[in-house]
Amino acid sequence: MGKIVDVLKTGKILVSDGAWGTFLYEKGMKAGECPDAWSVNRFDDVVDIAKSYADAGADMVEANSFGASYYKLEHFGLQDRAAEINEYAARASRKGAGDKYVIASIGPTGKLLVTEEVTEEDLYEAFKVQAVALEKGGADAVCIETMSDAGEACCAIRATKENTKLEIITTFSFDKTVQGTYRTMMGLSPEDAVKASLDAGSDIVGTNCGNGFERMIEIVSEMKSAYPDALILVHANAGLPQNVDGKDFFPETPEMMAAQVDDLIKAGANIIGGCCGSTPAHIAAIKKVVDAHNKKAA
Questions:
Q1: Contacts of 14 (CB under 8 A, 6+ apart)
Q2: pLDDT tens per residue, range 29-69
Q3: Are 157 and 200 in contact (CB under 8 A)?
Q4: Which domains are present in the chain?
Q5: Does the global pTM surpass 0.90?
């Protein structure tokens, strides 16, 4: 396999995977349990999730490492096992993904630089432990995702870039404001987020979670307008969540998501996958549209 960036520069659109959390609950994870610890304690189940997405046609699969930073694991008393848990997460996806890319997840720590409860040096060290272990476990890239603060994202980018050879994908989550613009929880616009990520050395940028494809099309358009050469990944929810009987339900079927893929490609997306509510069936439907696009463009 060549580098992800090199494949994208040929004009080929790639497909990523879908939600992981829902899958873990289906396999028996209890509320309050540490999802990331499953990579060690329920290794085969985590392998099976990765394999399910690879079998559905995903060109790249994430790793069960979203909350495997020192600070997130501290809630479960597992902070001293961060390196082990991240390595196992990458190993599980590497085994399940076969010859597909593994883009190992790094999520926010939950600590805020702005309130000085943590320093940039602290974050850098925590992300360094993750990135080094993920590379050791067989990841091809990291997907620094669901970010809202440029400072934290840049710490993760630098820690990965300076201590590994992994490709770097960085995505932010945006909400639509009453004015109709998009902003992260910390007030970043899509343009601001892309600039910060690229300046710090990210290879691929983008957006994940919080929105379905309809809104992602608007966000990607804004990113591409500001940075025409940027390579963009989108991990969209299966629509906006609806609360049914006290549980979040994501309304978009595989067919509904697939129907919007062409518009997302036109907006400038280079990698397309799912987030909350999406399943291997959604990824298979997206893959079908992407394959037809790639065939036509060849």
A1: 4, 7, 8, 59, 60, 270, 271, 272, 290
A2: 999 999 999 999 999 999 999 999 999 999 999 999 999 99
A3: yes
A4: 4-297 (3.20.20.330)
A5: yes
